[in-house]
Amino acid sequence: MTQHLYILTGASRGMGLAMAQQLLKRGNVLLCISRNVNPALATAAQKADVPLTQWMQDLADGAGASDRLREWLNSQNPVDFASVSLINNAGVIPPIVPLRQSNPADLALALRVGLEAPMALSAAFLGGTNSWPIPRKVLNISSGLGRYPMASQAGYCAAKAGMDHFTRCLALDEALHANGAKVCALAPGVIDTDMQVQLRGASGEAFPDQSKFLQLKAQGQLSSPEAAAENVLRFLASPDFGREPVADLRG
Q: Alpha helix locations (H) across 104-244?
């Protein structure tokens, strides 16, 4: 069997949407987990004549999402696939203000979507495919902000730093098993998405680094979602994937 199975969160827009479109175009089987379904993906799947499943799922409910994924995996036949990969791409930036001005509910949402859900989905994925005799991969889409602190970004930075470190732990777990999954938390670079619009539109008083993001846009230093998606998928397909548990496409 030559078809590969991909499970992708945050696939309805931005780089997630671009990854989904490229995966479908290449003839892969795809399960998308997002807050909304995207009709363009259904059209792309029909054009490529490949299976597509789209779930409307609130990833703030990591337990519910993981239970649903485990049940779905149990209904699949691994002989139908050449490999299986989970891409944890979804994330949320809470309002860009100093921590002392942050709403606890906003912080909780950022951590649930950006850290709790990837951990829960990874657990369900690895448990549900434990007996599958095919290559398995977990790609966590991280950020440079998980490695470098920034004022008024405590919630997002904490979620991505936690993602990096749980991926390191996960790599140690999987290395103990003969068919352990290859895992990596990858920073994909600076991409021209709605998240960048949010950063550029923040109050300069509340966000001291706003000018840096305005400059990146003005100087054309942002990658397009399509180019970033292509680079991420190339990295995922590389034989070196998983050699290091934390990586950065910018070197």
A: 104-111, 117-128, 154-174, 194-200, 210-218, 225-237
Residue 146 CA to residue 194 CA, distance in Å, equals 19
Evaluate whether 69 touches 92 at the Cβ level (below 8 Å). Answer: no
Render pLDDT for 22-34 as a digit per residue (tens, 0 to 9): 999 999 999 999 9
DSSP labels, 107-118:
HHHHHIIIIIHH
219 located within any domain: no
Total domains in the chain come to: 1
Distance in angstroms (rounded) separating the CA atoms of residues 29 and 34? 16
The answer to whether 67 and 218 have CB atoms below 8 angstroms apart is no
pTM flag (> 0.90): yes
Residue 201 lies inside a defined structural domain of this protein: no
Look up the CATH number of the domain holding residue 114: 3.40.50.720
Spatial CB neighbours of 67, under 8 Å, sequence gap ≥ 6: 124
Residue 57: which H helix or E strand, with range?
A: none
